[in-house]
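Q: Make up one entry.
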Amino acid sequence: MALRADDLIDRRRLRRKLTFWRALATLIVALCLVAFGFWFYEGESGAKSVDHIAKVKIEGTITQDDELLRRLEAIRKSPRVKGVILAINSPGGTTTGGETTFEEIRKLAAEKPVAAEVGTLAASAAYMIASATDHIVAHKSSIVGSIGVLIEYPDITGLMDKLGIKLEAIKSSPLKAEPSPFTPTSDAAREMVRKLIMDSYDWFVSLVAERRHMSREQVLELADGSIFTGRQALANKLIDAVGGEDEAVAWLATKGVDPKIKVVEWKDTESGGGFLFSKAVVKTLGRVFGLSDPTGDILRELGRDRLFLDGLVSVWHP
């Protein structure tokens, strides 16, 4: 019995030592990550302190993004930014999100040359944003276009009938809260929504015609929701050149930007919390300590934003 008791004591001591060293190792790794982050953050800040070309990535579903608007404003006001490249990879999003970003880019383009580099996709509101720049390049196999606006809503009246559910509504007027997924859409509601959509569609078409130096008739031929490859988009004058970042830099050079200066990405660092509370660091430290995703970005990656797009939508769904 004495030997077994001693064995248990030794095991407990060994377990405590192992737990201590594990905790110490985790702390050291975390401190190294923070130190590396500071080094990287300072390096990025240093890169912004010399003349450079600012690169901004616009990815995923587009909504009204106040942080992005502030970042574009900061780029516009920075004397060290000599030119801008918007790297776009998005299926679109809300029409208002595209509009607000478009307007901010036009303010930026009034002071600095701005080019758009299309990655896999720049459709609907994303193409609207690209058209705000003065030069658009896309890869041969990029997807461009889907000029248009829509409103989608489900009709669950058949399901309600099967479940024996009936919705009662007392409204000030027939078109209040219409269209509704809980009642069949009336002709009057359908016409109201169509007028809403066509008004924004008319504005979108006019915007593309103005920015791409095309007649309204030319744009209308393309603005039936169709998508195009980069090569097709070039033939249809929706982009200016086929290529990537090198071609965008070459165009900036024609506007007086030194092509030898570095291209520096301006990232969303959530500057209000500084480096220690930025998304990247919080996510990295969270993984070190076993948290699946402390920032919740995985929900965005899985398409959460597409499920909750309010208002008019200008988006292409793969």
